[in-house]
Amino acid sequence: MSEYQKAKRIVKQMRMGKAQAREVGARAFRAEMEAKRPDLALKCAKDFKLPDDDVTEAATGLFLELIKRARFDKALEIARSYNLAHGGDRASAALTAASRVDYDGGDALEQIRRLARKASSARLEASEADEAIELIKSAGKARAQDDQIRGRSVVLPNTGEVWLTGDLHGNLDNLKRFVSLADLDNNPERTLVIQEIVHSRLITADNRDLSFVAIMEAIRLQARYPGRVYYLLGNHDFAVHIDRELVKGGKYLNRYLFRGMAYMYRDRYEDVLTEYRKFIADMPAALIAPAAGVFMAHSTPKRAYVPALSQSYLAEEAAEKPLKKQRAINAMVNGRDYAPETADAFADQMECDVFLCGHTPTNKGWRIPNKRHLIIDSQHNKAHYVTFDLAQRYTSAEELSAGLARVNPEASEEDLASEDLM
Fold first, then answer.
1. What pLDDT digit, counting tens, does each position of 200-232 carry?
2. Would you call 376 helix, strand, or coil by DSSP?
């Protein structure tokens, strides 16, 4: 009597519950595998509802046994039924070994060779997804250990300098140019601030948004330069985090982003997306340069939300509840109230003189809508960035504008700015 049959009999005679039956089945499964009876081990795994890894292990063993016996049609049936092309390293290795069999196995063996190629591709995709997840986790851990972070804000020192971009919206070239100009390795006193990379301005013909390539570059920078590169929370990041669809100019931005991620990571894209959403949950909503009197955020709120925000709120109260419940921060990253009286009231709340923001597209790459706001746009050919000294006091946006520069001075003057990602 086989171990499988013994296990079935014991469970039935003793009227075991599911948990006990599973333990008996697991022992029988291992015994059948050691006895090189993968067909019975597979029955154990299925009948006793053992973990998927056990099912795959037994199916792989049975597949190899069938290959040895040149029963290619049956081996192909097992490979397809148990999805061995996505069954992990061992299953993939079995398919690869079978694909190298020098035998006239007809169409079945050719189909197995195709599955082996698919398995190889799946291994690569899984590896890339795992690398992305680990990188996101690494950047998140580095950020969590940053002693400049206060709740949902970052308080910068009174020495050094800041280099800040506006919205990048998937523009990897502009991001790389900006980083190259900043030359962090040779300028340890510099702090980089980047924002709103998600949701590309340029969508592929099959409606894929590949902005996640640029996002991963930014996250890689944070992991490499902890405490020196900050990725500011924007309204598009907020929308991805809470899975709220944004429709701009007839474009379904989240939908296109997910298609792009699925193209990059295939079956593992949701795993990467889940980790990215966790990363967004702790993105800083603002950076504060006390000595310079500069407040950096994606935008500033409408007048009604001004009283709800302050440095102490960002540092303390906002840290006590999840991002999706942060109405005041949501209002801040989505706001566009540039009325002088609103700017003055918010400056009083934030104990600063000047605001550096993105959020509002501008064809020339920067804009001064009032004496306190300097808006930077970095997503197109006229992209700008701004630099300023942390030790110097700035009392107006006009003073800050002295630090404006083109991301790519060699770019053509053709106006490529777009209003459809507002």
1. 988 887 788 999 999 999 999 999 999 999 999
2. strand
Q: Is 153 left (phi over 0), alpha (psi -120 to 50) or beta?
A: beta
Distant-in-sequence, close-in-space partners of 64: CB < 8 Å, separation ≥ 6: 38, 94, 97, 98
The number of residues making up the chain comes to: 422
When computed from its CA atoms, the radius of gyration of the chain, rounded to whole angstroms, is: 28
Is beta strand 286-289 parallel, antiparallel or unpaired with respect to 294-297?
antiparallel
* Cβ-based neighbours of 179, under 8 Å, separated by 6 or more: 192, 221
User: Quick one: pLDDT at residue 181?
Assistant: 96
**Residues of the chain where predicted confidence (pLDDT) is lower than 50:** 414-422
* Residue partners of 126: CB distance under 8 A and separation at least 6: 268
- What pLDDT, on a 0 to 100 scale, did the predictor assign at position 415? 42
- How many C-beta atoms surround the C-beta of residue 223 within 10 A? 18
Q: How far apart are CA 420 and CA 212, in angstroms?
A: 19
* Whole-angstrom distance, CA of residue 157 vs CA of residue 310: 19
Helices H / strands E in the chain, number of each: 16, 14
Token pair 């950076």 in the structure block, residue: 287
pLDDT value of residue 115: 67
Q: Which of 352, 274, 337, 345 is nearest to 307 (CA)?
A: 345
User: Do residues 237 and 248 lie in contact, with contact meaning Cβ atoms separated by under 8 Å?
Assistant: no
Quickly count: other Cβ atoms within 10 Å of residue 144's Cβ.
Answer: 10
Task: Give the integer Cα–Cα distance in Å for 151 and 138.
Answer: 19
3-state class of 296 per DSSP? strand
Cβ-contact 360, 340 below 8 angstroms: no
Hey, is 345 helix, strand or coil? helix
- Rounded to whole angstroms, what are the CA distances from 249 to 10, 127, 203, 253, 334? 66, 36, 12, 10, 18
Report strand pairing: 229-232 vs 247-248.
unpaired
